[in-house]
Design goal:
Keywords: Cell membrane, Membrane, Transmembrane, Transmembrane helix. This is Cobalt/nickel transport system permease protein. It is a multi-pass membrane protein. This protein is mainly alpha-helical. The protein is built from eight helices and no strands. About 20% of the residues are buried. The chain has two domains: about 120 residues, no CATH class; about 70 residues. It starts with a helix and ends with a helix. The longest helix is centred in the last third of the chain and has 31 residues. The chain is flat, with a radius of gyration of 21 Å.
Length: about 220
């Protein structure tokens, strides 16, 4: 089951605000997250490792709050709040690329300059990520093993330098390509559907979640 880009962005933002401003988390607050993850269960393995890595940072932050603030409730709240928001965001955005994000913001009638800038930012981050993975693969082929020595630091510095050079080259190539296509500050979407049938299920779950959060739990 796939959601439209506009519905994914809107639901993720609304749910994030609902959870972020709560002073306490109850089991009712996880209804929307559980429902969305059940609908998009096939996407969870793809992001499980990334979420686990990000959780290491959140565990460190929560531990810092607990150690220095002696506030275990606040530390647990940070950890649960983060995981609810990240899991919903990953499930809603699963399979979306830069073009899908642009279609989503275009459907939501956001300013054209904002949507175009966001499109190129997301697209360029994706390009830089691909270049970085290529260079990492070349280092692995050469049996490079990082250590705490001068050679490792020099190699990593070369890696960052080459990433910067390639990024500038790709940026110039992208600029020339857009000029050749007559780009005038706007992108015109085509062959896309603004909403999918699955959006009805997501909207119903979100309304039910808001009712539980601000109705039943009060």
């Amino acid at each position: 089951m796939r959601f439209s880009p506009a519905a994914g962005i809107l639901c993720a933002v609304i749910y994030s605000f609902v959870i972020a401003f709560k002073q306490s988390i109850t089991p009712f607050d996880a209804v929307f997250a559980a429902g969305i993850m059940a609908l998009r269960w096939n996407c969870l393995p793809k992001y499980a490792l990334r979420i686990a890595k990000l959780n290491l940072m959140i565990i460190f932050i929560s531990a810092t709050v607990y150690i220095f603030g002696q506030d275990s409730a606040h530390a647990i709240l940070i950890f649960i709040r983060y995981n609810l928001i990240v899991c919903v965001t990953a499930a809603m955005f699963c399979g979306m690329n830069a073009t899908d994000f642009y279609y989503g913001f275009y459907t939501l009638k956001l300013p054209h300059k904002f949507t175009v800038l966001l499109f190129f930012a997301v697209k360029y981050i994706e390009i830089i990520g691909n270049e970085y993975e290529k260079m990492r693969t070349s280092l692995r082929i050469r049996n490079f093993k990082p250590r705490t020595d001068r050679f490792t630091y020099r190699t990593l510095a070369y890696l960052l330098g080459m990433l910067l050079v390639r990024s500038m080259d790709r940026a110039n190539a992208l600029t020339e390509a857009m000029k050749m296509r007559g780009f005038a500050g706007r992108l015109y979407p085509f062959n896309f559907r603004p909403f999918f049938p699955a959006d009805v299920a997501a909207a119903a779950l979100l309304v039910f979640q808001i009712f539980l959060t601000y109705g039943v739990t009060r």
